[in-house]
Write a structure and sequence with these properties.
Elements: H1 10-21, H2 23-30, H3 35-47, H4 53-89, H5 91-105, H6 118-125, H7 130-139, H8 142-151, H9 154-166, E1 169-170, H10 172-186, E2 195-196, H11 200-207, H12 212-225, H13 227-237, H14 248-257, H15 260-268, H16 272-280, H17 284-296, H18 302-321
Antiparallel strand pairs: 1-2
């Protein structure tokens, strides 16, 4: 690439690229940009008087190389992309492209692991320290992490779930060290910054991907180790709006079990989808009464609504524990009728 006295900016390169691609292609690109981006690019394009052939070719070549790098990353990670580009363009040029690309991509750690087979990952990490396993699982897709957590020994499951829940931010040095181990096993690595991961939401996502037996084992163990954490996880495992995922018989059972006042308050702020499915599972008379009362119900306190919904969710959990209703989950909880 030719060295210039004054390097052109990324915005100028984008403008030159669109000019080179022509109006039809540029119009298609515009459809994917925000109004602010369109405004900035249009102003930049309008300021260009003449495009030198050499500069035009240089910009197109750079765009082509970056597009190739993105494609290589999607195929096999940044390590793979770097190897291929070094062979094609040389080490210095390849590193320059990778640096520019990763700074804009903000690639998440363990990107390569999210494309790996859960069984393969389990084989590599099952004998690692629980904190290491928790860190890796917190970066995986919830379904993938749930499969792995379900396959680990029961005595480890609750400990790892707890570690995910209380995890905050992790040093990039620690992540790099762990990734280096997997790099030797899976032949890939990624670059990263300080990353926030874990937390209660993360462990809830993971537990939603495991089977009911595994979930119960983990939560029962957590109940002994950290009762407050176990209760917080339980609260987030099933929320009131998730009632739309239940079958009609289960919803009818819930309606019979819950207080009408709690149902009324909960429906006050619920979505139309929730209201519709509840109305369909009530008797005609009950549904008409509820609709009439909801129409004339005045303002209610949000806290009262949340408490009513919490009581209904507690009832749902109790009915599920008793085997009276079924909540479909991952990990093999197929339902047959």
């Amino acid at each position: 690439m030719v060295r210039r006295e004054k390097e052109i900016t990324g915005k100028q390169k984008a403008a030159l690229l669109l000019i080179s691609l022509g109006p039809d292609v540029s119009a298609s690109v515009y459809k994917h940009l925000s109004e602010e981006e369109i405004e900035r690019l249009t102003l930049e394009i309008s300021s260009v008087k003449k495009v030198e052939s050499a500069l035009k070719e240089e910009v197109i070549e750079e765009f082509h190389n970056i597009a190739l790098a993105q494609d290589y990353i999607s195929q096999g990670g940044i390590g793979y992309a770097k190897t291929v580009l070094e062979k094609a363009l040389g080490k210095e040029h390849a590193q320059s492209i990778i640096n520019r690309l990763t700074s804009s991509l903000q690639v998440r750690p363990f990107d390569f692991a999210r494309r790996a087979d859960p069984a393969q990952l389990l084989n590599f990490i099952q004998n690692e320290h629980p904190q290491t396993i928790a860190l890796i699982l917190s970066y995986l897709d919830p379904e993938q992490a749930g499969i792995i957590l379900s396959s680990l020994p029961q005595e480890k499951q609750a400990d790892i779930a707890r570690r995910i829940a209380v995890m905050d931010s992790t040093s990039p040095d620690v992540i790099s060290e762990i990734e280096a181990v997997l790099e030797r096993k899976l032949s890939s690595t990624v670059a990263q910054d300080f990353s926030d991961t874990g937390g209660v939401d993360a462990v809830v996502d993971v537990l939603n991907g495991v089977d009911r037996a595994t979930e119960k084992t983990i939560l029962d163990a957590l109940e002994i180790q950290d009762p407050e954490l176990a209760e917080e996880i339980r609260k987030r495992m099933f929320v009131f709006e998730d009632i739309v995922t239940l079958d009609n018989l289960s919803i009818q059972r819930i309606i019979r079990e819950c207080e009408n006042d709690d149902l009324m308050l909960s429906m006050k702020v619920s979505s139309e989808e929730v209201k519709d499915i509840l109305f369909r599972n009530m008797s005609q008379r009950m549904a008409e009464t509820f609709k009439e009362e909801l129409e004339f119900m005045g303002p209610v306190r949000l806290r009262d609504v949340e408490e009513a919904q919490s009581r209904i969710v507690s009832t749902i959990r109790r009915l599920e524990d008793a085997g009276e209703i079924i909540i479909a989950r991952g990990g093999g909880d197929d339902i047959v009728v």
